[in-house]
Design brief:
Number of helices: 4
Mean pLDDT: 88
Strand order of the largest sheet: 1-3-2-4-5
Shape: globular
Largest sheet: 5 strands, mixed
Low-confidence stretches: 1-9
CATH topology: Rossmann fold
Order of helices and strands: EEHEHEHEH
CATH class: Alpha Beta
Distance between the termini: 39 Å
Structural class: alpha/beta
CATH architecture: 3-Layer(aba) Sandwich
Number of domains: 1
Number of strands: 5
Helix content: 40-55%
Length: about 140
């Protein structure tokens, strides 16, 4: 499965990172999110890639490498996790530090996990409210 969705000359990229799964459909879902995000960000981020913490490929290292190979000089990692466990607090920052050594000319930034974002709580509220109204 092709994971790169990019335009020529990408200077900024987003890397969506999830845990990874043995279920192939899970990766298809993340790919769909990447495509939808790319469609909403024309001109802002020329590439949206996906990566998995473990179990599946592409790995985070491979995802960062794909962004860089596409011309990215800034990569925004968005962890699609619902809690701050070991992967968010230790593993991903360690992998990003290694990537910084490998690609010193590229700025890498990790945003907080979804659970820390007010918009995520708003989304959960909206889902709960919609559920109440549809019953």
């Amino acid at each position: 499965m092709k994971t790169q969705i990019s335009d020529a000359g990408a200077e900024r990229a987003i890397l969506l990172v999830d845990h990874g799964s043995r279920v192939p459909e899970a990766h298809v879902q993340l790919q769909r999110v990447a495509v939808a995000l790319k469609d909403r960000l024309p001109g802002h981020y020329a590439a949206v890639e996906i990566a998995h913490m473990e179990i599946a490929r592409p790995s985070i290292e491979e995802g960062i490498d794909a962004c860089v190979a596409g011309g990215a000089r800034f990569v925004l990692l968005i962890p699609c996790f619902f809690s701050k466990g070991r992967h968010l607090s230790q593993d991903i920052p360690l992998l990003v530090e290694k990537a910084r050594e490998k690609h010193p000319h590229v700025a890498l930034r990790i945003v907080p996990g979804l659970y820390e974002m007010e918009a995520f709580v708003d989304l959960l509220f909206s889902v709960a409210k919609d559920s109440e109204e549809s019953t």
